[in-house]
Task: structure prediction
Amino acid sequence: MTETDRIGDEWFPVARAADIAAGRWLPFGLLDERWVLACDNSGRVEAFVDTCPHRGAQITLGDFDGERLRCGYHGWQFDIDGRCVHQPAHPGRRPPAGVQLKRALVRAGYGFWWICTGDQPRDLPVAPDHDAYPERTVWLDPVRVASSAPRIIENFLDLAHFPFVHTGYLGQEPHTEVARYGIETSEAELRLTDCVFWQPNPGPAAAGGGPVRYRYSVSHPYAATLTKVPSTSEGDPAGGFTILIVASPVTETECVVWRSTVVHDTGADLDAQQAFNDLIFSQDIDVVESQRPRRLPVDPRMESHQPADAGSLAYRKWLGARGIRYGTISTERG
Ligand code: FES
Ligand SMILES: [Fe+2]
Result:
């Protein structure tokens, strides 16, 4: 990470709300560092670097009793503030005050636990409806992907691959044309509006093909939402939904993808929706992992483009304006 990179000020999900409970800890990787999310017996959740300040061992090789994190190498114990409170080799001696674990900021939102490793945190991505209808929201299993987080988001914004990668579901030849869509950019958000595409089977409840209308919002460098606007008048029989996708970067070329979907229709089958979203995403993974370079090329000269790529080019530019270089590559950086 370069010194001027703003990626450390962003929030990233590292667990779903249901993944952690009192007395549990969860190791995870984020931004080239290993971390642990710990929930004490009172339900307080904190995140620490998972490396012992004594000799650098991984603390989660030890144990956690809901009060103290104990390193497995020499048994040093840390409280939920990250302070070292016991060094077994010197049982009667109080450890010096400065011995403590490095912490990250933690917050809950949209049914996830989010971490910010910097000290000037920005906002969570805007995710319409995601806090409003938990009874109509599904939180999908996280997926580890061998690619950069920006490649994941760019794939999520891309319509032209539907007939080839999601054949029979989100697209079907000869319906390959990508109609011109709207692009609105501000420092806070990139929006793609009025995206219309012909789909043979646009959702779990679909009964036939037709044009589908989407809009996308990017208000966080590695997150996006897709809202499918239901429109029976255009021959689209499926209900609407909003998908939130966030790629938490383990390194510049590997990430963990978190997704949740809010279904607009109160009678929708959430299990079917979950299975459908998982199927579609599994089709994307092979192709995204095959992309070279794994980091997203932000210099337009590094790849060839077609008019349908206007949204992805806008995303690349928006990342630069936001001060994000992590997970990207430009000719100057080589
Ligand atoms: S390395 Fe953790 S106690 Fe020594
Ligand atoms: Fe896809």
